[in-house]
Design a protein that fits this description.
Layout lengths: L8 E4 L2 E4 L9 E2 L2 E2 L2 H19 L1 H16 L4 E5 L2 H7 L11 E3 L12 H4 L5 H7 L8 E6 L5 H13 L2 E6 L1 H6 L20 E4 L7 E4 L9 E4 L1 H22 L16 H11 L6 H14 L1
Parallel strand pairs: 5-6, 5-7, 7-8, 8-9
Antiparallel strand pairs: 1-2, 3-4, 10-11
Amino acid sequence: MHLSLRDRISVQNGQAIVLYCSKTNKILEDGNLVTTVDRFFESVYEILDKIKETQKENILKAANLIAESLAKGGLVHTFGTGHSEIIAEEPWARAGGLAVVNIITGRDLTTMSGISSFVERIAQYADALLASQDVRSGDSIIIISNSGINALPVEMALKTKNIGLKVIAITNLAHSKSAKARGSGRHPSGKRLFEVADVVLDNCGVPGDAVLEMEGLPIKGQKAIGTSTIAGAFLMDAVLAQVIQNLANKGVTPPVLVSGNIEVTEEDRRRMREALMRWKDRVPVYEWLAKQEKLYG
């Protein structure tokens, strides 16, 4: 168990002395200044420890579902909006990741568009996105939404589940359960993402995402710096690491991507093409092969 600075004490002359106050940098620990950087490290450690303690079972469940799908020639899709789209990008075309990950995205879903906060509240946008995707029954999808209450991620979960995909959610249960999924911009059904998914992975964040208490912020009691991106990427990679191992255990060679910045041989390319044959009729795989041949050929 990781010991938090918030809970850490020192014993001097038989007396316990508290060394940390969450609202200030001016408390000393063993003669060293506890900085805001230290407090952020501790906040992240606490969350990752909590994920390890509480989410392992569901990480393994998610990995099993995805590996079963991939072993039968399926793809794993990812989807998120705004900052959650960053987590959806994490495993896509990633060195060390799987070549059979397909991201469902578009510029409007990214923060750089300036409109993702509006788009994520439009349920019908899921139809337009799916119309351009090779999404099939038997595939799986990982949908990321920190709040878990916006209309588009929920609709994407419902639509893909209806098609026949297994739906894994990465979300913040504390936030979802504290916010009502009703009203402007929320899903018409009133459902939240965790209520729709087959497997739910909790990023163990706090409502509102930000964790650092500070003085001098505009709003009384306001906190700074979110943790959902770090925790979400950790959950995503933990699941896919287990997926890769599960495939290998099944005797299926996992098509793991190699960095474009290291040397590969013709034999390496041959082995990768061979590993990808199980998914030869899926569009993202063809695209990846073409890029690899151009890069290394």
